[in-house]
Write a structure and sequence with these properties.
219 residues; alpha+beta; Glutamine Phosphoribosylpyrophosphate, subunit 1, domain 1; 5-stranded antiparallel sheet
């Protein structure tokens, strides 16, 4: 499981998520760290994928076909891959085996999509605000309450980092680490480097400490 969020800012779009992956074999589970953002070579399409191995298969197929956002095309890709994984009877299963979610960004067109597979396949295209995918917790309070309207990417990065980090504190086996990509208007997409990520995580921990202190002093 993972936690990821996509934002629309006044100067671009942002993707943020954790890097923890849970592996399983013979009933045993262990964790590793890996990026969950994948893209084509020209960054025409970038996908944050959340779910089991089937999510990665769907994401890779959408990238290979340079998916334009048409819901029926995404539904067909999902159907083909799920049928290959689980057989012709997969549609009779509710919810579907191994639900998955994708946040799909087409940077040059300034479009973002949410592909969610559970009881069925639902494709949405928000035009503003945010998209939340994966393991949601009470940490979402910060996104709902404290994201200023018409925020810049620089405003959004710390709040996105805080929400991902807090989700990891609440559900540490499933969520941990941080990765982030920004898509500024009229500029190339950019993955934040280790130094920036380290600074955002440190800010998140310091902010959490300050909030605790404020709550204690208020009592």
């Amino acid at each position: 499981m993972t936690f990821q969020v996509g934002f629309f800012g006044n100067d671009g779009m942002l993707l943020a998520g954790d890097t923890r992956a849970v592996q399983e074999s013979d009933g045993q589970q262990w964790t590793t760290a890996q990026s969950k953002f994948i893209a084509d070579a020209d960054m025409n399409i970038v996908i944050a994928q959340s779910g089991f191995s089937v999510a990665l298969r769907v994401a890779n197929r959408l990238i290979r076909e340079n998916w334009c956002g048409a819901p029926n095309t995404a539904e067909q890709v999902v159907e083909d891959i799920y049928r290959d994984e689980y057989g012709d009877n997969f549609k009779r299963l509710s919810p579907r085996p191994h639900p998955m979610q994708l946040i799909v960004v087409r940077p040059k067109e300034r479009r973002m999509f949410h592909v969610c597979v559970d009881a069925g396949t639902v494709v949405t295209e928000p035009l503003a605000g945010k998209v939340v995918s994966g393991f949601a917790t009470l940490a979402l309070l910060f996104l709902e309450r404290y994201v200023p309207p018409n925020s810049s990417l620089n405003d959004l990065k710390p709040l996105a980092a805080l929400t991902v980090w807090l989700t990891g504190e609440i559900a540490s086996f499933f969520v941990n680490g941080l990765e982030m990509m920004e898509f500024p208007h009229n500029e190339n997409p950019r993955r934040l480097g280790p130094k920036e990520i380290k600074g955002l995580l440190e800010w998140s921990m310091e902010t959490d400490t300050k909030i605790r202190q404020l709550l204690v002093s208020a009592g």
